[in-house]
Amino acid sequence: MEYKFDSKNFEEEVLKSDVPVLVDFYADWCGPCKMMAPVVAKFAEEFDGKVKVGKINVDDNGEIAQKYGVMSIPNFKFFKNGEVVDNIVGAVNPEMLREKVTSLLG
Q: Where is this site: Contributes to redox potential value (predicted)?
């Protein structure tokens, strides 16, 4: 299941999550974000129940993007126990992203 995060549910769904979380900071106008969207959706299915995978629109949730230092998108932040433990900026090889997601489980 792919989650939609926003300022109303970010604390509960991401920071207080009892499983690791991959947050895709994106915007609708961003070409590389659109390119990565199917990869993120696939990971949401693949890791369902083990890692929470979701997206947050930086245009609609600028305060959260600013808080986490998101300057370029797509920006993938990996949260564990409410803290950012890793980060990838830009469109990347799906295997690189999978390795990072898998490392959250270790």
A: 31-32
- Please determine, for residue 16, whether its predicted confidence score (pLDDT) is greater than 90: yes
Q: How far apart are CA 98 and CA 95, in angstroms?
A: 5
For the whole model, what pTM was predicted? 0.96
Task: Name the catalytic one among 22, 30, 56, 64.
Answer: 30
Respond yes or no: is residue 58 known to be catalytic. Answer: no
Distance CA 86, CA 62 (A): 20
For the stretch 51-67, pLDDT in tens is: 999 999 999 999 999 99
33 belongs to the catalytic site: yes
Spans of all domains in the chain = 2-105
- At residue 94's C-alpha, the angle toward residues 89 and 95, to 5°, is 110
- The catalytically annotated residue of 22, 23, 33, 56 is 33
Which CATH number is correct for 2-105, 3.30.230.10, 1.10.8.280, 3.40.50.720, 3.40.30.10?
A: 3.40.30.10
